[in-house]
Amino acid sequence: MPIFTTAPGRTLILLVLLGLGGCAADRHHRAGLSAMADGQYAEAIRELQQAAELEPRDTRFRADWLQQRETAVRQLLSRAETALAAGREAEAEQHYRAILSFDRDNARAKAGLVQLTRLAQAVDATGRARTALQQGDSEQAAQWLARALADNPNHAEAKALRREIETLQAKDLLSAPSLGAMYQKPINLEFRDASLKMVFEALSRTTGINFIFDREVRGDQRTTVFLKQTGLEDAIDVILTTNQLDKKILNAGSVLIYPNTGGKSREYQDLLVKAFYLANSEAKQTANLLKTVLKLKEVYVDDKLNMLILRETPDTIALAEKLIALQDLDEPEVMLEVEVLEVKRSRLLDLGVKLTDQLTVAPLTNNASNSTTNAASPSFKLSELRNLNASKLGITLPSATMTFHQEDGDAKLLANPRIRVRDREKAKILIGDKVPIVTTTSTSTGFNSENIQYMDVGLKLEVEPDVHLRDEIGLKVALEVSSLVGAVKTTNGSQAYQIGTRSANSVLRLKDGETQVLAGLISDEDRSSANRLPLLGDLPLLGRLFSSQKDDKQRTEIVLSITPRLIRNIQRQSPAAESFWSGTEASLRTKPLQLRNLETPVAVAKPLAAAEPAAKPSEAVPAPVGLRLSWQGPSQAKLGETIQLSLRLDSAEALRAAPMQLLFDPSRLEVVSVRLGDFFGTAPVSFSQLVDSASGRITVGLAGSGPDGVSGQGNLLLIELKPLQADLAAEISLVGMAPVGPRAAPVLPLHHPLAILP
After folding, report:
1. pLDDT of 619 higher than 70
2. Helices 156-174 and 107-134, interaxial angle, to 10°?
3. What percent of the chain has pLDDT over 90?
4. Exposure of 223 by Cβ count < 10 A (0-12 exposed, 13-18 middle, 19+ buried)?
5. Across the strands, what pairs with 473?
6. Which of 518, 564, 106, 607 is nearest to 340 (CA)?
7. Inter-CA distances, 486 with 525, 551, 717, Å
8. Distances, alpha carbon 675 to alpha carbons 97, 112, 644, 681, 736, in Å
9. End-to-end CA distance of the chain
10. 62-79 pLDDT tens trace
């Protein structure tokens, strides 16, 4: 009979199976914990889940399964986020899918996979946008970027590319139209009492530029023009200005001409809105600067953001930018290293014998009935004085006190603060105590009130630096040392203090890192007092036995050492940026009204057709070669090293004179010498030069004595420079030259950059 057919057999088999199931659950549980310790989270959770399913009644297995599952999810999510932040999308996807392998409904893992999908779409759209931008299609690039940012709003590359597109679009929107290369043609004009519209018609036929006239431009307005080898732009500006007209460039080949009146200017001049965020200067001060220099009426000031907003013409905005750049400089800062030393020496000697200065003789008291007073002050009848004798008199002998006391004291108070302060701001240092001063107020009703005020006692130092351009620092120093000398009781019982004070004020000018010592605040006290017995105390040597001598000597000296160290000085703009054209009193412009001679024409213009007999147009001929100037010399130098630059001239026409003006930064360069070059050879030349180191300006006068002049090539000037301060953007510039002889003028300014190395 089989064993499983009987009841005991079935029970036995069931017990065996239960035992085997329990052993399997323990085995899965141990394997899960081991895999968890090794970081194999997916396998560990599967093993722990099997153990919990094999033993559903064992709460320990189920608790470990749920707890370890939460730990595994937390660790895998952290790893996925770290990988995603580092740009490892494939690794992040593996971690998310590992979570879903044992927790299918985990919302964060599903959201992570969706985020990865959108990120891949954003990367693809960003790549397409960059390709479109490289092909010049900014609109298509903007559309692809909109898709990319819709999929992933925080995509860094898409944001950067969008900013790049916005910058390009802003440049296109804010850039004013300008005429093409034809506008730079040199031209000759000869019109006498010609119609203004006829002059522009001839210019239009020659240059291909379209001129559009406002309806208020008079058709019968006439002008006379005689110009040779002049730039077309300068010629048009001069013609318009002398006839009270103005222009607006519509595109590269079209110009609108209108009367230069207030109403027409407001109608045609485009205004630009510009916001200036200031870093160092205050918005109100900058607004006052713009109103004073540029005569602006409306400037919006935001004190909270330290910002200015202007709505002006582009030329006015450009001038405002230059002025703000000159004012909004980094403020200088100074580190003050201060050492204060107070030395106090005291010597006290109290030596001798101090005797009481009274000898008392008094009758002794008795118990007689006639004694009516106490023993201290007995009183007698006059009749009893006859009975006084030695037995009835008492004497109080003087007492003697011997003093042997000597004190020697040395004290040192050292303070070594370091404080950083901005230019023209006060730095205050207080090392000491606040002493309470009590003031009592009494009223007629008998009410008393006390008011406590505190007074600073100790070492007080106030320093105000003033930084100069040559790395020199002016200091206003105020030093005060106070101490409690003693306390004084007032009549109403209040306590007042006697305060000793020593102070010094000075104004210094030191170099960066220079140390200045202020000493001499000395307090010297010498006190001597004696208590002697008359006559005996005056005896030599023996008088010490009948006297007491007290000698007290105190000496206090205060020494102040201060060292300013420049952290940051004013970084001035280049000389070219500190001087610029601003137009006339009536109108603001970034360039002056001038006629510049061009060396070589871009193309030869056709003859200007005359529409009226009074006008005599002439053919535009090539401009002369004129003057060519160039700098020769090193482009970098070390501090303290003297270098030589030469201003080289190439002139096809004879040069008789050439007064010049040059600019340099005096805080970075020192002009050692300015000499005449070899351009004039042996011909006699009148040469003068003046160097103004304060303003950084060199004025040169140069004139030949002969009437013919000199042409050719050579060095016009030789300039020796010495660098004073390291700067990679230093320069010297030729800003003005009036050549006598050649018909053309050089193109200025002419800069020579110089990198100054430490």
Report:
1. no
2. 40
3. 14
4. middle
5. 467, 510
6. 518
7. 16, 20, 76
8. 82, 76, 11, 14, 18
9. 110
10. 776 777 777 877 778 888
Neighbours of 116 (CB within 10 A): 17
Q: How far is CA 49 from CA 19, 37, 101, 301, in A?
A: 19, 16, 12, 69
Using CA atoms, how far apart are residues 456 and 432, in angstroms rounded to an integer?
Answer: 7
Distance CA 681, CA 677 (A): 8
Burial class (CB in 10 A: 0-12, 13-18, 19+), 170: exposed
Do 210 and 182 touch, CB atoms closer than 8 A?
A: no
**Cα-atom radius of gyration of the chain, to the nearest Å?**
50
Residue 11, number of CB atoms within 10 A of its CB: 10
DSSP label at 740? B
Per-residue pLDDT tens over the stretch 515-532: 988 877 777 778 777 777
Tell me the C-alpha distance between 191 and 345, whole Å: 98
- 730 to each of 324, 578, 637, how far by Cα in Å? 21, 14, 10
Q: Specify whether the CB–CB gap between 568 and 280 falls below 8 A.
A: no
What domains appear along the chain, each with residue ranges and CATH number? Answer: 12-105 (1.25.40), 116-174 (no CATH), 186-268 (3.55.50.30), 272-329+573-588 (3.30.1370.120), 408-568 (no CATH), 627-756 (2.60.40.680)
**Could you give the CA distance from residue 626 to residue 334 in angstroms, rounded to a whole number?**
52
The first and second tokens of residue 646, run together, are 């030469």
Cβ(497)–Cβ(516) below 8 Å: no
Q: How far apart are CA 728 and CA 701, in angstroms?
A: 31
> CB neighbours (10 Å) of residue 130?
17
Each residue of 344-365: pLDDT tens digit? 788 877 777 777 767 677 777 6
Residue 457 region, left (φ>0) first, then alpha (ψ -120 to 50), else beta?
Answer: beta
Token readout for 463 is 């320093």
Nearest residue to 574 (alpha-carbon basis) of 276, 285, 325:
325
Tell me how many degrees the CA angle 173-175-178 measures, rounded to the nearest 5: 130
Rounded to an integer, what distance in angstroms lies between the CA atom of residue 411 and that of residue 53?
Answer: 85
Residues in the chain: 758
Query: What are the structure tokens assigned to 192, written together?
Result: 């006498």
d(CA 731, CA 752): 5
